[in-house]
Amino acid sequence: MSANLSAILYLVSGVLFILALRGLSSPETSRQGNLFGIIGMVIAVTVTFLSVGNFSSGFIYVLIFLAIGGSIGAFIAYRIPMTAMPELVAGFHSLVGLAAVFVAISAFINPAAFNLGVPGDIKLASLIEMAIGAAVGAITFSGSVIAFLKLQGIMSGAPITFKGQHILNALLLISIVILTIYLCSTQSSNLFWILIAVSFLIGFLIIIPIGGADMPVVISMLNSYSGWAAAGIGFTLENTALIITGALVGSSGAILSYIMCKGMNRSFFNVILGGFGATDQTSGSQNKEQRPVKSGNADDAAFLMKNASSVIIVPGYGMAVAQAQHALREMVDTLKKNDIKVSYAIHPVAGRMPGHMNVLLAEANVPYDEVFELEEINNDFANADVAFVIGANDVTNPVAKTDPQSPIYGMPVLDVEKCKSVLFVKRSLSPGYAGIDNDLFYKENTLMLFADAKKMTEDITKNL
Amino acid sequence: MEIDPFIFRLSIFILSIFVGYYVVWSVTPSLHTPLMSVTNAISSVIIVGAIIAALSGSDGVVFSSSSVYGFLAIILAAVNIFGGFLVTQRMLAMYKKKKKDK
Lengths: 464, 102
What we know:
Chain A has 18 helices and 8 strands. In chain A, 61% of the residues lie in helices and 8% in strands. Chain B has 4 helices and no strands. In chain B, helix 2 (32-43) runs antiparallel to helix 4 and helix 3 runs antiparallel to helix 4. Chain B is flat, with a radius of gyration of 20 Å. Chains A and B meet through helix 1, helix 2, helix 3, helix 4 and helix 8 of A and helix 1, helix 2, helix 3 and helix 4 of B.
């Protein structure tokens, strides 16, 4: 296949990838978009086979390995529960990162196969691109592995901090730049290996100080990194499809991190430097004053809702943990049968990844036009009779609007307290991730329902 | 004076960042999770490099020191491609509109 024809086809596959993302602007077009993505991928792989043009025994092995990886991927995709989506995405990011590292290593060992020169005399530009691709790939890999372990609960979600952490990270980052410069002048393979090892270490170190509820930012950031790694390799291979995709994914992840940071009113660096919530948690519990709290049972909650004409549901990470989405939808079905208007309010950082709550509700067959974002629904709380907060906490805390001393001051929150009454499903009065008390617990119109989210929802349905 | 092909690739790269920027801002927030899984799938187009690496062995030698890394990368990228697109498909199939009749 001629180089020009394959270049054009790679461009076509890049455009199809753009259309795949474009499709996600609405659920109706999204499935078609996904199809475009798949076609783009098939084109890219086929063109690569044709342009290498080597159909010897190696080709058979490529197909075998492709089939092995493909079946593992398909198996995971069908078996994974929707609540585990954050872990899955983190896990997948680590694979992209590692694949980028492997391709870079292969190109370094055998540059001739990629038209980059011969070992010991690799073109300068290619060497820099390779080093960037490998370093970013390695950071993506080890960072995603840590994120995965934290989300999976294998590793504690609490931030791990130690003295001199930031200085160490800064020194390691500087050392990467220095290593790359030396690598370019000496072409030494030892330096290349050290560069990869240091990058693995950085990825590990930058994710350990970040706590569980900041994971939406971390996952988006790693998403972005995996894109930049792909783009770096794309420059090495002079491949348009990879360059376009890398840029798309890189900017997509960056935008998502931005949206998540804004949802918490924190700067990107504040999240990345980590340790949020670790210190406040202790001080918060020490000077906690005893304030009266009204608590109730499923019967009280059912009574309140039965007499309401509109109910707004506010789901959070606790709903995912308790797997309460199906029970919740059954409760809502019963409410709707009684002609009660029900809508869902989703905070941008509810859950452990962007859009986490929306997927869970969709899984439970909640129509997406009943689910609203913060800006769309926030004014409706004042007119609603009941707000049903299930598994959310910090995102409903009115302190963010009233107390400039609070660590979450300025964070956009759902105006739940404006509802006539608030039902708050929670296991205990313990503070949320930010480590601060939620003023909402002590409001006159709040009824606390202390129970497991799923069990409480089922009990309410029975009592309706 | 001839322009270095690198500049063309850089142009594509920069323009794609802008395309990505505008396209992603138009993605509805309720589809942010599928956005992450599909970007994950398409970034596995890195398999292109993996295939070239895997087929780089000289005649007769399938597994050389460089092609082994290619084969490993093929497995990783294939997991991602199939896993990413299929899980996205599965998620998107769940997004339904309200039924007109009650």
